[in-house]
Amino acid sequence: MQFKDLTGTDQPRHLFQVFMGRVFMAVFLLCALGLSGFAAPLEADITLTQLANEGVIISDGETRILIDGMVVEPYSVYGGLPPEVAPLFEQVSGPFAGIDLVLASHRHHDHNQPLFACQFLQSSSATRFVSSPQVIGLMREKCRTFMTTSPRVDEINPQYGEPHVIQMEGARVTIFPLSHGTRKYARIQNYGHLIEMGGVTLLHIGDAAMDPQDFARAGLDKVEIDVALIPFWYFHPGPGSEVMTKFLDAPNKIAVHIPPGEMDEIKGYMSEEFPQVIILQNTLDQARFSATHQPQP
Questions:
Q1: Which of the residue ranges 7-21, 43-57, 62-76, 140-154 would you say has the lowest mean pLDDT?
Q2: Fewer CB atoms inside 10 A, N or C side of the chain?
Q3: pTM assigned to the model
Q4: Mean pLDDT to the nearest integer, 229-257
Q5: Crossing angle between the packed helical segments 133-149 and 114-123, to the nearest 10 degrees
Q6: Hey, which residues does 103 pair with through a beta bridge?
Q7: Which of 112-116's residues contact partners 24+ apart within 8 Å by CB, and which partners?
């Protein structure tokens, strides 16, 4: 898999000045049918596989991108990988095989666990890792030599209006800052990831604060998103509603980061208030999105 960093080239400086045309989406939801049920994706433009919390694998059958997915152990109220899946992560096999690019939105351990991340990357022969100075700094405490010498590790620091763009053979990834919040969260480097793959535009926002001004500063009011991964608390009454209406109004919304102990309660609430929103309840559950471009007049 070849990569090309477009940051610093003649690309448009505005975060999302250029993007693909709008697509109509057909969605297929599949539950994981045991480990033997995981195979190569069926014919679909995008397959999204649920891991722990906000962890997902995004694939078009060729290119495979993992976001916030190097989480194995439960952390606080949030989940990890179940016992039957964790060995696959450790062996870089099954759904974790052939990952081209790994991304981590921020340093919190429900999104990236340094020890397991080090083990995964060192067991992978070609996987590239791109993340913030804070994430990579914590990982250096666990595998300093690898993190400081491997050409597969890239530390980036995108700014508002100056995103970091990675052009892959089958995807384009735009990485940009989104605030994690105020006070003790103000110093957390939280990155949003816009993935363009297989005719589908997908947005992962990490633990972005529910701040409309920050989303506007990031330029997300100028993007047409097909699939939005949205932390479940945005759907509660409050500021998340405005953010979703103005910036995350994708035809396909997936509620993520649901604590396992609260899954039934949140699913019940969502089925009544937001019945069209997708919830992938179990590890390795999948959503498959097939895109068809609107015909020209």
A1: 7-21
A2: C
A3: 0.89
A4: 97
A5: 40
A6: 67, 130
A7: 112/68, 112/70, 112/71, 112/138, 112/139, 113/70, 113/71, 113/72, 113/73, 113/75, 114/138, 114/139, 114/141, 114/142, 115/142, 116/70, 116/71, 116/72, 116/73, 116/89
